Amino acid sequence: MSAQLAADDRAESIRMIRDSAAAVAPPGGDTKRIRALRQTLPGFDAAVWRQMGEFGWIGLRAPEALGGAGLGLAELGALAEELGGALAPEPLVAAGISTALLAAAGAKAELASLLAGETLVLTAWQERADTLAAPGTPDASRMFIPFAAGASAFLLPVREGAELALYWQPAGAGLSTEYTYDGGHFGTLQPAPARKLADDIGAVLEQALDDAALATSFYLLGGAERAFAMTLDYLKTRMQFGKVIGTFQALQHRAADLKMQLALFRASVEDAAAVVDAGASGAARQAAISRAKVRAAEGAMLITRQCVQLSGGIGYTDQYDVGLYLRKAMVLANQYGSAGLHRRRFMATAPEGEE
Amino acid sequence: MDAIRIPPPAELDALDDEHFRQVVRAFLHTHYPEELRNPPKRLHWSENKPWYFKLAEQGWLCPGWPKEFGGLGLSPSKIIILTEEYERYGVARCNDHGIVMLGPLVIKYGTPAQQQQFLPKILTGEHIWCQGYSEPNAGSDLAALRTEAVLDGDHYVVNGQKIWTTLAMDANWIFLLVRTDKTAKKQEGISFLLVDMNTPGITVRPIINLEYHDEFCETFFDNVRVPKENLVGQLNKGWDMAKALLSFERIFLGSPRQSGYALSRLKLLAERMGVYEDAVFQESYVRLRLEFEDLKALYETYVAKLKRGESLGPDVSMLKVIQTELFQKITDCMLEIAGENAGLLEPMEGNRNLNATGQFIQARPASIYGGSNEIQRNIISKNVLGMPG
Lengths: 355, 389
Known about the structure:
The complex is a heterodimer.
Chain A: H1 2-21, H2 32-37, H3 46-54, H4 73-86, H5 92-105, H6 108-115, E1 121-123, E2 142-146, E3 153-160, E4 163-170, E5 175-179, E6 185-189, E7 195-198, H7 202-237, E8 239-240, E9 243-244, H8 249-277, H9 282-310, H10 322-332, H11 339-349
Parallel strand pairs in A: 1-3
Antiparallel strand pairs in A: 2-6, 3-4, 4-7, 5-6, 8-9
Chain B: H1 17-31, H2 45-58, H3 76-89, H4 97-109, H5 112-124, E1 129-132, E2 148-152, E3 155-163, E4 173-179, E5 190-196, E6 202-207, E7 216-227, E8 231-232, H6 238-244, H7 257-273, H8 279-307, H9 317-337, H10 356-363, H11 373-384
Parallel strand pairs in B: 1-4
Antiparallel strand pairs in B: 2-3, 3-7, 4-5, 5-8, 6-7
Helix pairs in contact in B: 1-3, 4-5, 7-8, 7-9, 8-9, 9-10, 9-11
């Protein structure tokens, strides 16, 4: 019975998080703000970022002793889903990696200003495309850093023997940026480690990247849900041949198929969050997250692609919002590991069923 | 496992879920015939009646019926556990139309006299029921059915033809949807009638299916006289009653067990064929495994709803479509890797576990029965998504 009560409390806290998200991510939202930020630097709104800090969102998963809320991935996922539905461009998921590292390093002051939304600390870990491995090569450029132009500082993992040390690198020099198809950007950073924060954060980083993969999956879910809802409205109102096109069975069955994909998508990512929150570790944790990310990458691409198709000519225009979701999916589907990478990892980590 | 005591039926619903699961496992382990596990074909009464009588003797035959009618009175969540364990153990379906369909309908809509007449005989195995719903021209459009029952004195006179009457040759009673008012809107002129199969004028003709198995029948009615007290519920309300009975059990059409079993057989076959490590096979296999895991996660969300006491909406149709289409994809893969063995009539090497063709053929009707997947997509688009027309 107490397990049921705990589950009820959990459901209630997730509901509250979803409600509070409406402040930044208005339901059925206006995309004017999102459109205005496209192909600008840093591509997000610093005031909204501070607001997210005030709401406690940046520290949602950080330990309470360090100023966080100490909540789980189910809560973060629900929030990311709401933000994804609204296409909010603020760097909540990317900053989550840094909060985990700063907490592990005991860097209280740096963590506090990040949690408040006063700064943006990003982790510059990636040395090539489509990887979850952070080799920490001392002089290798760090690539594909989202929101990099908005960073106040970077966290730099650097290999030192068997350990992966963590360095602080203030923003300023050595950064170049490229725009992405959704209107955001990636940064490439030349390493210039300034100050050592911790001797070995390898295991923490590995887990934080996985958590970011799962949070990204939720963000993609929110976008896919919203794109589908828009498309469904379109199918119910668009007239051709003297009829609402949603009366055509070919389109009804397409819509039914997408609804089923969404149901599997939600079940997959929520199940992975439950597995992580229940304390799974090692291969079981990796397998659950990889499964969710495969589903998210493939599901988000499938659904947004189909939504463009079902919207016809208007779907191919920049003025129509469905395309925003397709472009976001193009950028996020492969972040923190493509479907292919995660399929390989699933096979390597998931135990096969009984019998 | 053998140490677990099987409590009397009346105590089962009070057990906690995990204990209950262990009891079911122990019971199956002790009593279920090994040779009937995971049968490649639907069993006939002659094959599965020992198990039916074992369940009857134990008092476990009708888990969903209330205790006062001789059932176990189990909650939906316990019934799910029971079913999961039966599926896990590979327990064959018995001739269960009386247990699953007719019994609950008579309990809900029957008169006390009908309840006393029919329910005990299901519990003893004296009456084996089959279902007469579909007709040659009333399949997906079931409400178009034309078999008619015309009142003549104290009897209804039934004329017409039913089809897909599963295991009718094993049954001695049939429950029918019959047309009793030809002038009303098609759903509103249908009644629910119980017929003794030994009444003169009934002919049963088995249909051989793609499995070369006689699971289904055609059943013909030629001036069959049925006592009018065998009508259940109100005249012309049969459609509503049959529909109301589509209860939470619809979840079982989406149970991942069928796909899980097929997936485990796919692996055995791949190992036997020497392709398990092959990159092309692994590419297919990982996708199927991921689909299966996500189906399980979705299924669990519906189980959780039932455990919270919620009822299931029309969206449960999604589970059925996803499960059956995954089952088919797995068996497609089995057929492909089996090579020339995919053409064999009997399992290769006489090994039931390497039965690619059997699994493939069994997967065919899964997307047809219980409302074809095309009908399920209609339900999803209209009743879940609210699409027009």
